[in-house]
Specification:
BirA Bifunctional Protein, domain 2; 262 residues; SH3 type barrels; alpha+beta; globular; binds biotin; 7-stranded mixed β-sheet
Length: 262
């Protein structure tokens, strides 16, 4: 596959002069690899793309499974991580800023499911895993993104999958990377300077949950009312407005009651 590594490097290096782009045929996990490198003192900004991950990781200790190829040899998903030193005044909302950049780069129909899933037509299209590490005074952030490019042959996942080819029929993993990578670096650098607050309105325009009845994993129920300036989910409950900021809270829309209309 011909990856647009040079074009991405040319777009990003004026902003981050020590930036590099690397494509590997196989690795356990691009996030794990960049965390290992950071622990070994490699802290320059880097985009690491893997054509195949043998132990891709998702949030909350889950696996991120991606079939490598279809019969025709095309990659069924795009998997990459971006590592860079970052020092925002407030880290809250980083995953929302990342998701927002990804959807805005790809297609108007894509939506964000708080805190950091990308959905298309009520199915999950992409996931984001952010990990950070303190190195002396610095904090190194690893932002991992997995995007389904083609639909898997079987749909036995907990959450049914969507794929980018449903809205961009000509897309492949390399083209998708060319669309998302440079804007994502710019968005993260801007987040480091300004935080989440300036992105709140843009987030609401893509918010999958806004106005929906939700059940949170801590038992709270209510109607989603967007996010606050720090990216916390606002839930309108019987006891007033509740802010949900814990990354451990998973949110699922409450079941829709059967219609009894005549
Ligand atoms: C989730 O939805 O739970 C997050 C999934 C994140 C998957 C990506 S694929 C590239 C990077 N490397 C990993 O091991 N995970 C992230």
């Amino acid at each position: 596959m011909l990856w647009p590594a040079e074009a991405i490097w040319e777009a990003v290096s004026p902003l981050l002069p020590t930036f590099s782009v690397e494509v590997l045929p196989q690795i356990d996990s691009t996030n794990s690899e960049l965390m290992r490198r950071a622990r070994a003192g490699q802290l320059d900004p880097v985009l690491l793309v893997a054509e195949c991950q043998s132990a891709g990781r998702g949030r909350l200790g889950r696996q991120w499974v991606s079939d490598d190829t279809t019969g025709a040899g095309a990659l069924s998903s795009l998997t990459f991580s971006l590592g860079l030193p970052l020092s925002p005044a407030d880290w809250s909302g980083l995953s929302l800023a990342v998701g927002l950049s990804v959807v805005e780069s790809l297609h108007p129909d894509l939506r964000l499911k708080w805190p950091n899933d990308v959905w298309l037509h009520e199915r999950k299209l992409a996931g984001i895993l952010i990990e950070t590490m303190s190195v002396g005074e610095l904090r190194y952030a690893v932002v991992g993104v997995g995007i389904n490019i083609l639909l898997p042959p079987s749909q036995d996942l907990r959450t049914p999958a969507a794929a980018l080819c449903e809205v961009l029929p000509e897309v492949d993993a390399a083209r998708a990377l060319g669309l998302v990578a440079a804007p994502l670096v710019r968005a993260i650098v801007r987040f480091g300077e300004e935080g989440f607050a300036p992105l709140r309105t843009a987030f609401h325009a893509r918010d999958l949950l806004y106005g929906r009845e939700l059940v949170c994993s801590d038992g709270a129920t209510g109607m989603a009312r967007g996010v606050d300036a720090g990216g916390a989910l606002l839930l309108h409950t019987d006891n007033g407005l509740k802010k949900i900021s814990s990354a451990e809270v998973s949110v699922r829309p409450a079941p829709v009651s059967p219609s009894h209309g005549s």
